[in-house]
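Summary for the steering committee. One of the milestones for this cycle was to obtain a three-dimensional model of the protein with 2-acetamido-2-deoxy-beta-D-glucopyranose bound, which we needed before selecting residues for the alanine scan. The sequence and ligand used are listed below.
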Amino acid sequence: HDFSRRKFPILHCFRSLIVKETAELQNFQTIPDDLLISTYPKSGTTWMSEILDMIYQDGKLEKCRRAPIYARVPFLEFKCPGVPSGLESLEETPAPRLLKTHLPLSLLPPSLLDQKIKVIYIARNPKDVAVSYYNFYSMAKGLFPDPGTWESFLENFMDGKVSYGSWFQHVKEWWELTHTHPVLYLFYEDMKEDPKREIKKILEFLGHSLPEETVDLIVYHTSFKKMKENPMANYTTLSSHHMDHSVSPFMRKGVAGDWKNTFTVAQNERFDVQYAEKMAGCDLIFRWQV
Ligand SMILES: *[C@@H]1O[C@H](CO)[C@@H](O)[C@H](O)[C@H]1NC(C)=O
């Protein structure tokens, strides 16, 4: 495969592409042992994908360097003319497979839920998500329309008028799913605080055990610094037409609480009001820094 020439999905077109391709996506059949990584965008998807691939490869680094992260963990709804789709990539992936999605539940292929496929969901506080998403829109010029000013982007984010829709709905509906499905619901901030503790939760959820030194190795190699310099994880295998890392690198800061450097006091107050309204009655608790 020449991964550098593989195009990346046109994210802002996803909605229409999915609507067009709905039958194909909806008819997707899982196979036993599939594991789904689900997140709203910019919440630690690539981080979790690398952690899980390392677990699946028993910490063998050379194996994890076999291909870029988006080829090791196929992107379920990826669909772009002239490029292998997520579904096509999955057909070539040997079991046990890791799948990635950002889909809201309403668009998820039913087989995943019917077959009670295990899900690892990661949620991240929405202020950091909004800032990260804005930077991503700005650097991934070949994938997104111009995000406009930060001020207008933040309004659109709060209204769910961005790719993949409302953050609020996404985190809440996947949280609800934990009542009826095998979902391990994790938080980005907890992973920053103590990655080893969270990796151990993942191992327990998978019913998989690894020697302590392998767990330490995984913690080390999935640190922000290590992943940023890993060409199989940092997305520099894509052409600069799709992602321009000189505008803002894909691996930008990887911290919790960075929103404070972007939000104005007024924006923060407005966000808090919206947050309280939209999260009313939900028992999810987010941490705004660690
Ligand atoms: C990606 O990894 C390569 C190889 O280590 C490194 O040279 C490059 O600076 C990294 N790119 C970014 C944008 O982090």
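Key point for the committee: The first strand starts at residue 35 and ends at 39.
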